Amino acid sequence: MNGMHTKKLERQPVILVTNDDGVSAKGLQCLIEMVKPFGKVIAVAPKEGHSGMSHAITIKHPLRIRKHEQDDGVELYSVNGTPVDCVKLAMSQVLKSPPDLIVSGINHGSNSSVSIFYSGTMAAVIEGCLYGIPSIGFSLLDYMPDADFTAVVEHGKPIVEAVLARGLSKGTCLNVNFPAIPSAQIKGIKVVRQNMGTWREEFEKRTDPRGYDYFWLTGYYHNEEPNATDTDEYALNSGFISVVPISIDLTNYKEMDALENELSKKQTVRNEEKIR
Fold first, then answer.
1. Which residues form the domain of 125?
2. Residue 219 within a domain
3. With the CA atoms of 260, 264, 270 and 272 taken in that order, what torsion angle do they form, in degrees rounded to the nearest 10?
4. Three-state SS string across 62-113, please?
5. Which residues touch 263 (CB under 8 Å, ≥6 apart)?
6. CB-based contact 44:18 (threshold 8 Å)
7. What is the pLDDT of residues 165-198, one digit of tens each?
8. Is residue 213 part of a domain?
9. Are 271 and 185 in contact (CB under 8 A)?
10. Is residue 235 part of a domain?
11. How many Cβ atoms sit within 10 Å of the Cβ of residue 1?
12. How far apart are CA 43 and CA 74, in angstroms?
């Protein structure tokens, strides 16, 4: 498999689990239960929730790791930092060697479409990809703390199994989202592209008891291609699990030649003006 992150294992795979909702989140425990049948699980998660932190790292205060007692063979640690901090510390200080797989989630809420740019869950996955490790982010379109993750645990296992067996292309990770419907109503898995859309952000102005104004972020998602049938938004709205392969190379190759030609023309004009 040329260019694939995969290896034949003669030992039990090591799986690093993290999230952005915090070490006490229900989604984290459900993700641990999902991947336990596949190998040795080591979980390193933020001490508190860090949703919407994207790829933030901590540089202004010391990071601390606390090991928690577990009775199921799982090593569980919390970090007073971001999801990306957790992956970096796990790789540097917790793990004796790189893991075979990194999984993040299960996020309480959607990370489809452009939400990936704000997501702490997916930032941890992208960080794992930067280390060259097959990485998957799992999210459920339910923001409630007591959300039912049954469908994710059941239908997510084949995805984990496939990635462990096949690996992923270099520079690629997976963004997996689940509709908030009962497991029996899941229609299947669709490998799709990221939907084009934007968050139309608004700020609600409020006043605190001391008379000072403050602002609370609100807004809504605007789907810029509502008629497209090959996107994650369409799959989710149709009752399917969406799987989007994400590349960490953000280069727009189609734009390169056009931009180079235009800049070359400008440079030629400037050179001619200098000669005159």
1. 4-195+225-275
2. no
3. 180
4. CCCEEEECCCCCCEEEEECCCHHHHHHHHHHHHCCCCCCEEEEEEEECCCCH
5. none
6. yes
7. 999 999 999 999 999 999 999 999 999 999 998 8
8. no
9. no
10. yes
11. 8
12. 7
93 token code pair: 């200080």
**pLDDT band with cut points at 50, 70 and 90 for residue 50:** confident
On whether residue 13 sits in a domain, the answer given is yes
Contact 122, 55 (CB under 8 A): no
φ/ψ (deg, to 5) at 34:
-65, -45
Average pLDDT rounded to a whole number, residues 69-98: 93
- Give me the pLDDT at residue 51, please: 83
- Decide if pLDDT at 129 tops 70: yes
> How far apart, in Å, do the first and last CA atoms of the chain sit?
58
Q: What is the pLDDT of residues 193-237, one digit of tens each?
A: 999 988 887 888 999 999 999 988 888 788 889 899 999 999 999
2: pLDDT strictly greater than 50? no
Residue found by looking up tokens 């994400």 in the block:
246
Residue at 87: amino acid letter? V
pTM, to two decimals: 0.88
| pLDDT score for 69 | 78
Q: Give the count of domains, the chain.
A: 1
CATH code: domain of residue 124 = 3.40.1210.10
Residues 6+ apart with CB under 8 A from 130: 248
